[in-house]
């Protein structure tokens, strides 16, 4: 299901906070709701179609999942997904026998569901780190190119799991390989997104920066929130898990600088994203693109009636695939049913100019992305204007020093019950802003002290109502960025309690940033 872009804001632009100095305080005129008649929304941001998608799913070709490719596509389609990437785990048996059969099933799904935009990718075991989505297009050579990458650079096949300088260097060689293959036109439009970055604390801040800088435009960001959001539901006997599987503690390969709270989700979101002035903000403060996404990480979906047939424990290691799932007729609620179908709970919206693979790729790389859990809102648009120009999500606004910059936020409130059985209520929208201070001297920096919530809005709630807010940054003296988030509750995101975290009770939305540069 798609949402046609509505006409958005009047004028053009957005403005920000001075580097190293506090953001301008809002005035009564600069933080107010106003009527739709005041706006020409299309002039500010252009007109996009917003497509819902998921870049992280698993099938029976993964050693820890069960679904057919067709099941994932059909389930995602039923829950409103427009685009899906199939990303089975790198594994010795997968590389040996599973890549071509996956490609055949993928092509069959493309033929069966022509309204879905589908990719055959993989979940890469990143040397010296953990996991990342990798996908690209290679036509008739798709399977061969995926195998070539997996064989040369996956830590399960190269004995390069441990955190070490040598293994970190291998990860960078893999990214440069993708760039070289794209330049040579052997693959097209590769994309890499770091998955569940702090689940095990194994991806250090300097590694994120190194990935980004090694392959700009290919490594475009990270999961702001992991999949497996249903893992936090309370379960019998107190054996509940944690949202996203974030139930871990530091290990031998973890970066030692992360605090204990980084190993838990906060309102379902990775600590790197959820903490204002934290790791994500420290990356944005460098003024470089680093986008966030969310997804299902679908392995076993809560409430599904499908079950995996009983097979010997070494089945996958000798077949590279599990048998097709069977319909038990009974909704499954206990472990390992910790996931949702694509589009069912976690939604990544991408703004596109055309409904096509290229359209989605363009939107992802441009950062025209906003994310929501549990249907907190059905539509969101963010734009900024000032100095005669405008920008939307992922964009850059250039203004003269001393200009005013106004950000406008429009949301369509939810009108339908979500999977938790109730219509979610958006309680607050925040504009978060911080100075752009340039490349970090310390590549392991994970704080941005100048970033703060510049303004909060409390929409008057009614099902399906459209709300529009604006905030103006006065007399902008230095470059900055801004981003928007929202919640159904008050206060900052708090750590989810292991075994007691119903995901539908604590909902958040996040939008990717807009940068404001001075000319």
UniProtKB/TrEMBL annotation:
Signal among keywords: yes
GO MF annotations in UniProt: 5'-3' DNA exonuclease activity; 5'-3' RNA exonuclease activity
Polymerase/histidinol phosphatase N-terminal domain segment(s): 53-128
Keyword Signal carried by entry: yes
Membrane-crossing segments per the record: none
Keywords: Signal
Pfam families hit by this protein: PHP (PF02811)
Domain of life: Bacteria
Record-linked InterPro entries: PHP_dom, PHP_domain, Pol/His_phosphatase_N, Pol/histidinol_Pase-like, TAT_signal, TAT_signal_bac_arc
Signal sequence coordinates: 1-24
SMART domains reported in the protein's UniProt record: POLIIIAc
Protein name: Polymerase/histidinol phosphatase N-terminal domain-containing protein
């Amino acid at each position: 299901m798609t949402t046609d872009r509505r006409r958005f804001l009047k004028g053009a632009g957005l403005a920000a906070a001075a580097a190293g100095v506090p953001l301008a305080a809002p005035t009564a005129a600069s933080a107010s709701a106003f009527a739709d008649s005041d706006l020409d929304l299309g002039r500010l941001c252009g007109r996009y179609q917003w497509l819902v998608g998921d870049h992280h799913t698993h099938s029976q070709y993964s050693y820890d999942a069960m679904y057919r490719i067709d099941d994932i596509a059909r389930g995602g389609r039923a829950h409103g997904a427009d685009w899906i990437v199939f990303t089975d785990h790198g594994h010795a048996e997968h590389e040996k026998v599973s890549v071509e059969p996956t490609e055949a099933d993928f092509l069959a799904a493309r033929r069966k569901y022509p309204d879905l935009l589908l990719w055959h990718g993989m979940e890469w075991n990143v040397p010296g780190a953990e996991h990342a989505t990798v996908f690209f297009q290679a036509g008739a050579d798709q399977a061969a190119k995926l195998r070539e990458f997996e064989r040369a650079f996956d830590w399960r096949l190269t004995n390069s799991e441990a955190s070490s300088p040598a293994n970190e260097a291998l990860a960078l060689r893999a990214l440069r390989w993708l760039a070289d293959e794209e330049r040579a036109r052997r693959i097209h439009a590769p994309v890499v997104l770091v998955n569940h970055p702090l689940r095990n604390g194994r991806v250090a801040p300097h590694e994120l920066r190194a990935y980004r800088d090694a392959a700009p435009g290919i490594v475009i960001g990270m999961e702001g929130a992991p999949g497996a959001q249903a893992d936090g539901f309370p379960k019998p006997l107190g054996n509940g898990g944690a949202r996203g599987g974030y139930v871990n503690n530091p290990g031998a390969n973890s970066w030692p600088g992360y605090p204990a709270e980084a190993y838990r989700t906060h309102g379902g979101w990775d600590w790197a994203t959820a903490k204002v002035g934290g790791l994500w903000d420290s990356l944005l403060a460098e003024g470089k693109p680093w986008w966030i996404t969310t997804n299902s990480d679908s392995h076993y979906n809560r409430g599904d009636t499908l079950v995996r047939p009983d097979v010997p424990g070494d089945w996958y290691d000798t077949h590279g695939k599990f048998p097709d799932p069977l319909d038990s007729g009974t909704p499954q609620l206990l472990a390992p049913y910790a996931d949702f179908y694509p589009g069912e709970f976690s939604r990544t919206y991408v703004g596109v100019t055309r409904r096509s693979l290229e359209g989605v790729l363009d939107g992802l790389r441009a950062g025209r992305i906003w994310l929501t859990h549990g249907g907190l809102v059905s539509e969101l648009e963010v734009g900024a204007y000032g100095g005669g120009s405008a920008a939307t999500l992922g964009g850059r606004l250039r203004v003269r020093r001393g200009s005013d910059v106004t950000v406008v936020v429009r949301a369509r409130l939810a009108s339908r019950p979500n999977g938790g059985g109730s219509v979610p209520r958006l309680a607050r929208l925040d504009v978060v802003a911080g100075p752009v201070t340039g490349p970090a001297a310390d590549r392991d920096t994970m704080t941005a002290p100048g970033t703060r919530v510049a303004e909060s809005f409390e929409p008057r709630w009614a099902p399906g109502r459209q709300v529009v807010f604006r905030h103006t940054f006065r007399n902008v003296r230095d470059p900055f960025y801004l981003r928007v988030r929202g919640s159904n509750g008050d206060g900052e995101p708090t750590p989810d309690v292991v075994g007691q975290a119903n995901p539908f009770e604590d909902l958040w939305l996040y939008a990717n940033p807009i940068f404001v540069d001075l000319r």
